[in-house]
Design a protein that fits this description.
The protein has 504 residues and is of the alpha/beta class. The protein is 34% helix and 12% strand.
Length: 504
């Protein structure tokens, strides 16, 4: 049986030991960071080699992409009203919904058929039909590959969200970005490998469980960054209002921490991956003190780039009700921050739209009024996503970057309360764009109502999407494993097939 720590040990052996590194830290945290950068030169080379497929045994294919950005719509975006046009709903609008079978509704959501809220128009040479709020994506329609037959095992937000982010409906499993970090390592030793940009109002369902490393070493967890905040990375610097922290006391605290870590290691715990991960996090934090402010300096961007993303720096005083201008600014800001992080070597960036359930709605969970909620959110999302794709393309980065748009499940073709839609885990939409993706295609269809896959025996599941992402990164998903509780766990569980129909 393979040693589950073999990969981590190999990486440690390629660099100076942590005991040696810590011994160089007597003059404080800054020296610790410098020692890490100098002594970790071999580790950097090893991580670079990992990008070509030699870091982890699962890296067996020539990689098509180096980086991934995942756009997640928290609350369940309506495929019917955005991307998956259904003429039958227009024709039968207002008639009693008849699914031809018993339907498990989440709430009282089996009212009359409800036509798409907005008109659809064709875009691009492929003629993809898109609704009015997402019309900004029309400029890049020929670069998008749509999957309209996605299914979820759960109609509950928390479980379905975890399923999309980790491959499992229960907490405790690593996020997709964690697996990518574990397999490929870093392309920039001064920034995290996996970064999470949450909605400006808070986290979606499950919070940190969506990007936690689970049973993988904690160094692979996602790092949360709030690009619009005064302190984008929590606890990276002493709190400005705390006058009790001085440069001297801060240095003394870090020196003491280094001594304690060294003493702990010298007590025969050199193989403790938890301590190693903690030390790595402190090393990274020190390096980030210089790298992160520059990476997140959005004011340095040209005015035309800010306009492209819809970002209005310095704008305050947004209306109390959900509105398109505010959603455009904040989602565009996160997409712009994602581009800056990607071009500086971050491998996996997760961009969230919508926070957890609450009233009034600030997410995609439109039980009461799809037009009120989806309209501003979709307008902002489409503007930011289109800007990101065009920006990456103009910089020559789209060819080796993968963009994934997803949500936890879809919404029902029947109405709820006249203006809303209930949960629909039985079918929803994903789209992908970038390196290795054949744009302007649709792979997998929903039925005439947008209720279930047209071919019910052959739906697309999240494990297929994850397998496809890993393949484009050069990874064989069945070989990317970690031994936990007697099982060789993987992102795709015991499932997953590469979606060949969307690959170029």
């Amino acid at each position: 049986m393979a040693n589950p720590y073999q990969h981590t040990r190999r990486r440690l052996e390629q660099s100076l030991s942590r005991r040696e590194l810590l011994a160089a830290s007597g003059s404080g945290f800054g020296t610790l960071a410098l020692a890490a950068m100098l002594a970790g030169e071999r580790e950097t080379l090893a991580a670079t080699a990992g990008a070509s497929g030699s870091l982890h045994p699962a890296c067996v294919y020539p990689p098509k992409v180096k980086r991934v950005v995942q756009l997640f719509m928290a609350g369940a975006a309506s495929h019917i009203d955005l991307f998956d046009y259904k003429p039958a709903l227009v024709k039968h609008h207002g008639e009693a919904s008849d699914f031809g079978e018993p339907v498990e509704a989440f709430q009282n959501g089996l009212g009359p058929w409800l036509k798409p809220i907005w008109k659809f128009q064709p875009y691009g040479g492929c003629g993809k039909l898109l609704s009015e709020p997402v019309s900004a994506l029309g400029d890049v329609a020929d670069q998008l590959a749509f999957i309209h037959n996605m299914v979820s095992p759960s109609g509950v937000h928390s479980a379905a969200t975890l399923h999309q982010t980790t491959g499992f409906v229960l907490p405790g499993f690593p996020g997709a970005g964690c697996w990518v970090s574990y397999a490929l390592g870093s392309m920039n030793q001064n920034l995290p490998t996996f970064v999470v940009l949450p909605d400006h109002r808070g986290f979606g369902s499950n919070g940190v469980k969506n990007w936690d490393a689970g049973f993988l070493p904690s160094q692979y967890s996602g790092t949360v960054i709030h690009p619009a905040a005064d302190d984008p990375v929590a606890d990276l610097r002493p709190h400005a209002a705390g006058g009790y922290v001085t440069a001297e006391s801060d240095r003394a605290a870090r020196e003491m921490l280094a001594r304690l870590n060294r003493r702990h290691l010298e007590a025969g715990r050199e193989g403790d991956s938890r301590l190693d991960a903690r030390i790595r996090s402190y090393e990274l934090a020190a390096r980030m003190q210089l790298a992160a402010p520059e990476a997140l300096d959005l004011a340095s961007e040209p005015e035309h780039i800010l306009r492209q993303y819809g970002v209005q720096l310095g704008k305050t005083g947004w209306p109390s009700q959900i509105n398109a201008e505010e959603e455009t600014h904040h989602f565009g800001l996160r997409c712009l921050a994602a581009r800056r992080l990607l071009e500086r070597g971050v491998r996996f960036v997760q961009v969230w739209s919508g926070n957890d359930n609450g009233f009034p709605r600030r997410n995609w969970d439109s039980h009461e009024d799809v037009e009120r909620d989806h309209g501003p959110l979709a307008t902002g999302m489409a503007r930011g996503a289109a800007a990101l794709i065009k920006d990456l393309d103009q910089r020559g980065m789209l060819d080796d970057t993968l963009v994934l748009w997803t949500t936890e499940f879809g919404r029902m073709p029947s109405s709820q309360g006249g203006k809303g839609r209930d949960h629909n885990p039985f079918v929803f939409t994903n789209w992908l764009c970038g390196g290795g993706i054949r744009g302007g295609v649709t792979c997998g269809e929903s039925d005439q109502w947008g209720y279930k896959p047209l071919d019910r025996d052959n739906p697309t599941v999240v494990h297929d999407v994850h397998a496809t992402i890993l393949r484009l990164l050069g990874i064989e998903h069945t070989k990317l494993t970690w031994r936990n509780n007697g099982l060789d766990r993987r992102l795709t569980d015991v499932h997953g097939h590469v979606i060949d129909g969307i690959l170029s």
